[in-house]
Amino acid sequence: MNIIQTIFAFIISLGILVSIHEWGHFWVARKMGVKILRFSIGFGRPLLTWHDKQGTEFVLALIPLGGYVKMLDEREGDVPESSLHMTFNRKNVWARIAIVIAGPVANFILAVVALWLMYLIGIKTIVPTIGRVIPSSPAAKADLTANARIVAIDGKTVKSWNDINLALATHIGESAPFPVTTQLPTGEQTHMVSIQQWPRSLEHQSLLEILGVETWFPTVPSVIGKVIPGLPADKAGLKQNDKILTINDQPVHDWSAMVKMVRSHPSVPLHFEILRNQQTVSLTITPEKQVQGDAMTGFIGAEVKPVHWPDNQIVNLSYNPVTALSVAISETISLAHMTIHSLIKLITGILSLNNLSGPITIAKVAGESLRSGFESFLYFIAMLSVSLGVINLLPVPALDGGHLFYFLIEAVRGRPVSQKIQTFGLQLGIIIVLCVMLLALYNDFSRL
């Protein structure tokens, strides 16, 4: 079921992003008087086609990994004399610039709309309260303390852990101190945090771990909420509402202690003392092995019984239409800023290319966001749309940014870049794009 939901979320999200991007090109091109021959969502064999009154063919194709708008252009075939005024290549350079840039701009607009809807509906999130500061970490050296609430980074207000992750992402690879403001009942305090050693790969370590803080959680009792059929806990007779008292005669005070014990003993029989209906029961459970990152850990197939979060640790981010629009625009700018910084750091080698993700990772995140709720899916759409917009503006031939680069040179010189250079650039651009796609796919399969 999860696989079907993941595939569905991937197709829907990619379909929305590609449709909006290509619609941007399509709409502006028509406004500029360019004849559109084909508007295609997807590549390969057409599954569905139809024509509008202006003769444009609309196509829904088999492979949902992109799309394109085909315009009338003398460089791609003979054009009747009567239609020359509708060709893309005969429009002035500023019209062509507007048509090319319209796709990425449409993606930024989509991000704003998605975030506006999210904040209009309202999204519940956890207040960024520090649960524990890791000794000798950057946070510890800057005197951040447990139970303090992080309220600002770089002087900008943060209201969730997601805001904090976005703020930290802009500092990846930098050793210069940056201000983190925390709040306790005694008042606010600003700490100068300096992270001297950033890992080049962020696959196995979160930004919060690098900072040296753990999120605050209410105490979670070691009570079983669900037992997954067919796995070790079920086979050994563990039941819902059982409370774990000890494992191998060691007291289990909370859920995290139980999880730590199980994970550290793959394929090793563990003796459980549990409380069931006011009676003590003994069970022996042997955790199965699973690969987690670079380590081998154990699991038994039991889920925790949900606990109630205090009202003061939950915030509902919901705004009126005007405020929601302002917040959405600001967050879109922040996402674009983070994406640009990340790309620069990938290109300069500050970040490892292992951090690149392809369609498999995108599909997994799409599925997870959809399962988390409509508001989370809207945020995922916004993030992906901003990334698509920024990447398409890179000055790489074969991308919108490559065409834009040529047109800007033409605007300055007063004459277009030679067709020979453009053709060579296009071939080079296609090779670059294919290499990046293959690397991203390789990373995806490596994570699997």
Describe how the helices and strands are arranged:
Layout: H1 2-31, E1 36-51, E2 57-71, H2 93-121, E3 123-126, E4 130-133, H3 138-141, E5 149-153, E6 156-157, H4 161-169, E7 178-184, E8 187-193, H5 207-211, E9 213-215, E10 224-227, H6 232-236, E11 243-247, E12 250-251, H7 255-263, E13 270-276, E14 279-285, E15 288-292, E16 295-299, E17 302-304, E18 314-317, H8 321-348, H9 359-372, H10 374-392, H11 400-413, H12 419-447
Antiparallel strand pairs: 1-2, 3-18, 4-9, 5-6, 5-7, 7-8, 10-17, 11-12, 11-13, 13-14, 15-16
Helix pairs in contact: 1-2, 1-9, 1-10, 2-8, 2-10, 2-11, 8-10, 9-10
Describe the structure.
By secondary structure, the chain is α+β, with helices and mostly antiparallel strands. The chain has twelve helices and 18 strands. It has a four-stranded antiparallel β-sheet with strand order 6-5-7-8. Strands 12-11-13-14 form a four-stranded antiparallel β-sheet. Strand 13 (270-276) and strand 14 (279-285) form a beta hairpin. Helix 2 packs antiparallel against helix 10 (374-392), helix 2 (93-121) packs across helix 11 (400-413) and helix 8 (321-348) packs across helix 10.
